[in-house]
Specification:
This protein has 230 residues and is α/β, with parallel strands linked by helices. Helix content is 54%, strand content 12%. A five-stranded parallel β-sheet has the order 2-1-3-4-5, sandwiched between helices.
Length: 230
């Protein structure tokens, strides 16, 4: 079985060792290397080419967030999960801006962390779930990429550029469905779903799914209410 390669970055050697021992007990996860929060971590990541990086954003937290941003920019195929001991709205907002795929408290259990790693490895963007439970952060994410000229009727016009199928797809994304699952629901291939999502991001001028979903919910284009037809 091919294992998910994980690289751990944390300033505390004891915590790194604890993560290594806990995750290496999971059958399909392997900690391939670890590092302190420093510039050498980037070189080590390039050497080991992990599937995922677990990153303690540290104190001051901007040091870790800057490292997260560099990882996602240099190696977009590597997913970053940010771990924090001081969870607040500002950190979550900065985590979204860094391009991280996950944002978790360091109080999570090994099983919860393993589940998050597996979901993100399946290309789920679980940080979206955290954003949607924090209205203030969602609003800031929206403002971050929204053109200030797009207000009122202009926003309604923008919404009409999305097809009914694209709005339906966004609804599934907001509810945590994977591309493969959405394809099954909509009777089309996974590649078609990816093409639709690329179209949505282009039309909304959004950087990623999180921004697109937040925008769609904020303006009432989609709803998270259960619908038996979906």
């Amino acid at each position: 079985m091919e294992k998910i390669g994980v690289f751990v970055i944390d300033s505390n050697p004891l915590f790194r060792e604890g993560l290594r021992q806990a995750l290496n007990q999971i059958e399909d996860i392997e900690v391939v290397a670890e590092s302190n929060i420093n510039d050498e971590a980037l070189e080590l990541i390039a050497s080991f080419s992990p599937d995922m990086v677990l990153l303690d954003i540290g104190l001051p937290f901007l040091t870790g967030l800057n490292l997260a941003r560099q990882i996602t920019q240099r190696s977009p195929s590597i997913s970053v999960i940010i771990l924090t001991a001081y969870d607040d709205d500002e950190q979550l907002f900065q985590a979204v801006k860094s391009g991280a795929a996950g944002y978790l408290s360091k109080n999570v259990t090994a099983d919860e962390l393993a589940l998050a790693i597996k979901r993100i490895h399946r290309r789920e963007h679980i940080i979206t779930e955290a954003v949607l439970t924090r209205p203030r952060v969602a609003e800031r994410v929206l403002k971050q990429f929204q053109d200030t000229s797009l207000v009122g009727a202009a926003m309604e016009t923008l919404a009409t550029t999305l097809t009914p199928r694209e709005l339906e797809l966004l609804t599934y994304v907001a509810r945590g469905y994977l591309n493969k699952q959405i394809g099954h629901k909509l009777s089309c291939s996974e590649q078609t779903i990816k093409n639709h999502m690329s179209s949505i991001l282009r039309k909304l001028d959004a950087n990623d799914r999180t921004q697109a979903v937040v925008m769609a919910i904020h303006y009432g284009w989609i709803s998270l209410k259960l619908d038996e037809s979906l």
